[in-house]
Write a structure and sequence with these properties.
3-stranded antiparallel β-sheet, 15 helices, Inosine-uridine Nucleoside N-ribohydrolase, Chain A, 7-stranded parallel β-sheet, globular, alpha/beta
Length: 430
């Protein structure tokens, strides 16, 4: 195990089946220390998502009771300082609230409660102030997370967003200077740039759930009250990079649970508690994914946790500080907030230089401005600049005069993540 100092992280999440696997991965990642879970609306409603954190901890606790050696796999299950758990936003900054219950179920875990009351956690446990593994806070979530940034050294904490970006936007509204000066890294799972969406044909779910927060944080208006996130310390993981990372269900059946099947509930007999828990909530996931023509679960949020664990904050904004195997492209886009069919869409300017005039701008309005200013725009006097396709950045330094947002373009690979996930969470080498 690396002797590198652990990265303290805040996990902003809406569990959710892939969030749940991501949190298991976080509990099993020795590179990080979990300071807090901010639980948000998103995949399901806030109360169900909050409930699921306790189910995850219960499952890991039962795994360790069943096999005490499993404690070594989960270094963050029992920390010297218990992570805070706090309820975050119940809905977006503006606009209608949407969920992904069609995929994650009403409980966020594939409606596992219908067949597995044994996996539930009583309200008395969820509401108790003396939880052995979690500090329960009843303060507003944005206040809790701002306090954590103030209490730790500047640029020490990584903030991982696995759901809507609403709480982070509320933090910026409350104290933008604190976030901009003190956060060390912001790792965001969200967006779809050059691939179809998963919530709609054009939008990834997290950004569809609150596009207003995305706009405020990544593409703020010139007249906004703050300048958005510190972009040089931000890493975006859109569907473009996360979708190829997956658990093929035949591999899960072969290596984790040979009895796993989409047509029957998991039975606890003959398997460890954590394998039973995972099979219970993955059953519906497999059923839904097979209806989409794919017998695998995509590891969107798990890839983001992996990125945060492998790429700790750096001491200076002059370098990205990415680990071997990781790389970024700088991308420019706008986020659609109000479209009837395109809410949450990343609007990328795909025009070539001759068509674009100025990257991402409205050509008609620019032409009007040129005429009003009596500006000449002949064949040899084009004011166009290249459309923002991709600008590659090395792990060592930022591109000179960089613009846009750093988007993860390369990881060590889907197979590397699958092997790491199976080993850390289930103790299986493949």
């Amino acid at each position: 195990m690396s002797t590198r100092k652990k990265t303290p992280v805040i996990i902003d999440t809406d569990p959710g089946v892939d969030d749940t696997v991501a949190i298991l991965m976080a509990l099993a990642s020795p590179e990080i220390e979990i300071l807090a879970f901010v639980v948000s609306f998103g995949n399901t409603d806030l109360e169900a998502s909050y409930h699921n954190i306790f189910k995850i901890y219960q499952a890991v606790g039962r795994e360790i009771e069943y096999d005490p050696s499993a404690a070594a796999r989960f270094p963050n299950y029992t920390q010297a300082v218990k992570p805070i758990i706090v309820k975050g936003p119940e809905g977006p900054l503006s606009g209608e609230q949407h969920s992904a219950k069609y995929f994650h179920g009403r409980d966020g875990l594939g409606n596992a409660y219908e067949h597995h009351p044994d996996l539930d956690v009583p309200a008395s446990v969820r509401e108790a102030d003396d939880n052995p593994h979690l500090q329960i806070s009843r303060k507003p979530a944005y206040e809790v997370t701002l306090d954590l940034l103030r209490d730790r050294a500047p640029r020490e904490i990584a903030y991982i967003v696995l759901g809507p970006m609403t709480n982070l936007a509320l933090m910026m509204r409350a104290d933008a200077e604190c976030v901009q000066e003190r956060v060390g890294r912001v790792v965001v799972m969200g967006g779809a740039l050059d691939v179809p969406g998963n919530a709609t044909p054009v939008a990834e779910f997290n950004w569809y759930a609150d596009p207003y927060a995305v706009h405020e944080l990544l593409t703020p208006s010139p007249d906004a009250t703050h300048s958005g996130l510190p972009i040089s310390r931000t890493l975006i993981l859109p569907l473009d990079i996360t979708t190829p990372h997956e658990i093929p269900f035949p591999a899960y059946t072969e290596h984790i649970d040979p009895t796993f099947a989409p047509d029957q509930p998991s039975k606890s007999e003959g398997k460890t508690p954590l394998r039973h828990f995972a099979s219970a909530f993955l059953r519906r996931t497999r059923e839904v994914m097979k209806s989409f023509g794919k017998d695998a679960m995509e590891l969107h949020d798990i890839t983001a946790v992996w990125a945060a664990a492998q790429n700790p904050p750096t001491e200076t904004d002059a370098v990205m500080g990415l680990a071997d195997g990781w790389n970024v492209y700088w991308r420019t886009f706008a986020i659609e907030r109000t479209g009837e069919y395109t809410r949450g869409m990343c609007v990328v300017d795909r025009r070539d230089e001759a068509m674009a005039y100025t990257s991402g701008k409205n050509r008609a309005k620019l032409q009007e401005a040129l005429i009003d200013a009596d500006a000449k725009h002949g064949e040899l006097e084009s004011t166009a600049s290249p459309a923002p396709v991709m600008a590659d950045s090395t792990p060592e330094e930022l591109p000179e005069g960089y613009e846009g947002v750093p988007v993860i373009a390369r990881t060590p690979g889907p197979q590397a993540l699958l092997k790491l996930l199976f080993a850390r969470v289930w103790g299986v080498e493949i």
